[in-house]
């Protein structure tokens, strides 16, 4: 044992040093590679954003195209890259600069005003045509080959095969296709610009060349509404229409966007609001401002594409309870063309606080849907408070309704709004109404309430005058609590119908109570609430989206007419 050689101390230290070195390399190398990749990705993003900012195209980047896609420059198959949401051009990231120089985007206005309104040629781009599109020459399917092939006009959306493309077709006049009556041609805006320089305002003469059916459409989309579909819809509408007609209301307020109506013939414009009931109210307030400015002859008719949570107004007007992309955008435009004009009552809600030394002006709201005090306002107030804290968590329509259900269940146990009849006095057209033991009072202007429930009709087993949104009357109902509200929504109970009136006055005598106007809630102390008629709004009603409730209400109305 004494003859065995012991290892020198420095050999052990050397081995430990190797182990430490390899351990550091194994830990630091992935960190370095990750940092280097992040740095390169950040540089590419900055470079790409710089190109996007300087480009005339409306570029947007994507990590994965939804269909087989080929670069319009290098013709190679690509999985990710950038696309223009105005003309539909799709390119690889490395070909962005070349695409900017080689391919022009949609022209909002023509550079020269010498071209006639009806003499605009097609604007063809090659490749990535829509699926199931057909050639205008041979009527066969386009885009079926696995390569960059065939052409599409970015204005009329017509497609044609490579071999069918002729010089005569390249120089052919573009008629703007199926949606010609909704599109504002670039040549029209150029002519308008020239007329304004000459101080002429007779736009009807100019519009007569576009036909009697020409009724241009303005898109006002809220990119933050509901399920955050607004941003994608903006791009789809820009492809089908003139990009100048499409606005994101979070960037361009409706007051500014609606000034485009003043460049169009009187009473010709239509507006499609893509958002919730709050966005619709915002747009209708902007329309009222046009009346104040003396622009009443330019006021448009308003249609709705529901992207919010409740969407009671859009449901009342036949546009459905919510849009989730189940029908293509082109069909939405067809529905707008088929819609009929109707009127919608708008009401002024004035809230005057009580107190001898109250020097504040009364608060004023404009009501399109309903006003309420009680459990449904309390649910809206709780939901609103939590959404303000974490708005990103409330982007799902289903999740939002689940949160409402949670607060409704909680109120069934707590009953924060009980004995409301002892705290308020209610007057309909100046006559005081005796109230039973209620927890909530709801004043309705439209047929739907609470995300799709026809509150005034209830179960439909009793004969009452139907609720209308254009008769100058308000329907006033009471509820006995959150559980009663839930029963009404599933048609297991009727509301307590208080009556109909032209003017409603509610006096809150004591304590704080939750109130809401069109889903905008607040906590209110002793006050007097007065609801009076304010004005009418011109809306578009689409009869093709009638629900079972709509059909039953229509049949009930016909039965009443027959008995009369």
Strand and helix layout:
Layout (H helix, E strand, L loop, with lengths): L8 H46 L4 E4 L6 E2 L6 E2 L2 E4 L5 E2 L4 H7 L21 E3 L24 E3 L5 E2 L6 H4 L15 H12 L5 H5 L9 E5 L8 H11 L5 E3 L5 H4 L12 E6 L1 H16 L8 E6 L5 H5 L12 H10 L1 E14 L9 E5 L2 E4 L1 H15 L7 H18 L5 H4 E5 L2 E3 L6 E5 L3 E2 L3 E2 L19 E6 L2 H8 L6 E6 L2 E5 L4 E5 L2 E5 L2 E15 L6 H16 L1
Parallel strand pairs: 9-10, 9-11, 11-12
Antiparallel strand pairs: 1-4, 2-3, 4-5, 6-7, 7-8, 13-14, 13-26, 15-18, 15-24, 16-17, 16-23, 18-21, 19-20, 21-22, 23-26, 24-25
Helix pairs in contact: 11-12
Question: What key attributes describe this structure?
Answer:
564 residues, alpha+beta, Wheat Germ Agglutinin (Isolectin 2), domain 1, Rossmann fold, Tumour Suppressor Smad4, 6-stranded antiparallel sheet
List the total number of helices. Answer: 15
CATH class of the largest domain: Mainly Beta
Largest sheet: 6 strands, antiparallel
Q: What number of domains?
A: 3
User: What portion of the residues fall into strands of 2 or more residues?
Assistant: 15-25%
Under the CATH scheme, which architecture of the largest domain would be assigned?
Answer: Sandwich
List low-confidence stretches. Answer: 545-549, 551-564
Mean pLDDT: 84
CATH topology of the largest domain: Tumour Suppressor Smad4
Radius of gyration: 31 Å
The CA-CA distance between the termini, in Å, is: 122 Å
Shape: globular
Helix content: 25-40%
The computed structural class is alpha+beta
- How many beta-strand elements? 26
**Physical arrangement of strands within the biggest beta sheet:** 14-13-26-23-16-17
